[in-house]
Write a structure and sequence with these properties.
Length: 128
């Protein structure tokens, strides 16, 4: 009986899996322009909250497609609606912020438009 009580107390005293501290997320800006994503190589730390600011500086709608990256990351719940099918659509001159905790790996990001992708609108994401 004492052993059962000790196990229950140890379980209750163990820290719960803490939710990310979104207010401490590091800002990281990604600029989407006609046929370009800057920076071309993005580096993040695994497990550290990140505010990904997708800034469309062009006069046409762009999407930031990074399905593997978004699928592996822990997204803030309200961001899950903005990331559909692994992509975020950003209207001309607009900004989309996505809060997430990246998972280690190497990922690709590119435009949703095949034409833009062929002309070089792509980048790499490295999370260590």
């Amino acid at each position: 009986m004492y052993r059962l009580i000790a196990v229950l107390l140890a379980f209750l005293a163990a820290p719960a899996s803490a939710a990310p501290e979104w207010r401490q997320a590091r800002d990281y800006e990604v600029r989407l322009s006609s046929f370009d994503i800057e920076p071309q190589v993005m580096r993040f730390r695994a497990g550290e909250p990140l505010r990904l600011r997708l800034v469309n500086v062009s006069q046409q709608t762009h999407s930031f497609d990074a399905d593997g990256f978004f699928a592996a990351a822990q997204l803030r719940p309200r961001e899950a609606q903005a990331v559909r099918g692994g992509k975020v659509v950003v209207p001309p001159g607009d900004v989309r912020e996505i809060l997430l905790v990246p998972r280690a790996g190497r990922y690709s990001a590119h435009s949703g438009s095949l034409f833009s992708r062929v002309l070089g609108m792509s980048s790499r994401i490295i999370v260590e």
